[in-house]
Amino acid sequence: MATAASADRLGRLLNLVPYLLARPGIRVAEAAADLGVTERQLREDLELLWVCGLPGYGPGDLIDMAFDGDRVTITYDAGIDRPLKLTPDEALALVVALRMLAETPGMGQRDAIERALAKIESSAGELADAPVAVRLPGNDDRLATIRGAVERHRALRITYYTASRDVLTERVVDPMRVLVAAGRAYLEAWCRRAEAVRLFRVDRIDGLIELDEPAAPPPQAQPSQLSEAVFTPTPELPLVTLRVGRGSRWITEYYPCEEIIAESTEHWLVSLRAADLGWARRLVLGLDPEVTVVAPAELAEAVRGEAHAALAAYGADPD
C-alpha cells in the first residue's frame, strides 16, 4: 500500500510543476481541489518540491516558488515545464529495458517486471510490437552458453582476462547467476581458485567449457548486493590521492571517492581506493597531463618512470 501511495505521489509531483506554471498565483485550496488531494497534502508536496531540482542541488538548481498569502507561483521550474509524457523513443527504450530484465536468469520480482512491461506496452500501442531483438551485452554465443550453464546448474572452466593486472587466468567456477550492472553483462559465480564469490565480465571471458559436473557453490557463497557500481572499495585496498585539474574532475563522478578537497578553483585533491596500484598507474597515465600523484610514493615513481620512458622513446627530453 505504501508503494502505491509513493507512486501516486511521484506522479502528482511530476505534473504539479507544469500545472502551477499554467496557473500563476492560484489559491492553494483551489489547486488541491483540482488535484483531488487535501490542502495539507498539497502543502507537503510543495515543501518536497523545494528540495527537488537539477544535479548540483544548490541555489539556482532547485525548484523555487513564491507564496503570497494563500496563493502560490512557480518562479523556477528546473526544466519540468510540461506534464510527463513518454516520446515514442522513450517508450521503446523502456520496453526494451524491461524485456531485457525479464530475460535475465535469476532476476527477482519478475511479476512486477511483467506488470510494468504490460502497462507500458499497452500505452505504447503498435510501437511495442516493433521487431527489436533483446540481448544482454556481451558475445551472444558466449552469453548463451553461460546462461545455459546457470539454468542447468553446471560448472564451467573459463579463461578470464583480468584488466587490473593485465593477465589471463584459467579457473573453474560454479555459476550462480547472470546479471547486468553499469550496462554490462556479468557472470556471478563461486571461483574455486579464489575460494570466493567473483563477478566475471562476460566480454572478458576468452574461453569457456561447460563441465560434466554440477555447479556446487558452498553455503557461504552469497549473491552480491549491487547498486550501479560493480567495484566496491574496501579499507584494505590501496588509497590513492591525486591532484586533478578541471579537465579530469569527471573521475569524481565515475569512480567512488573517499575524499574530495577543493584546494583552489583550479585544482582538487581526490582520494580513492584502487583495486591495485597497477590499475591506478594505467588510470593516471590515461588522464589529463595536469593530473599528479600525491600518494602513495611508489605510484608516483611508477607513473614518473613510464612517462620518462615514453618521452625517451620519442627522443624528447624528460625534463
TrEMBL record:
Give start and end of each WYL domain.
Answer: 143-207
InterPro entries for the chain: CBASS_pafABC_assoc_protein, PafC-like, PafC_HTH, WCX_dom, WYL_dom
Residues covered by the PafC HTH domain: 8-121
Q: Out of the domains of life, which is the source?
A: Bacteria
- Name all WCX domain ranges: 239-311
Q: Where is the signal peptide?
A: none
Q: Which PROSITE patterns match?
A: WYL (PS52050)
Protein known as: Protein pafC
Question: What organism is recorded for this protein?
Answer: Rugosimonospora africana
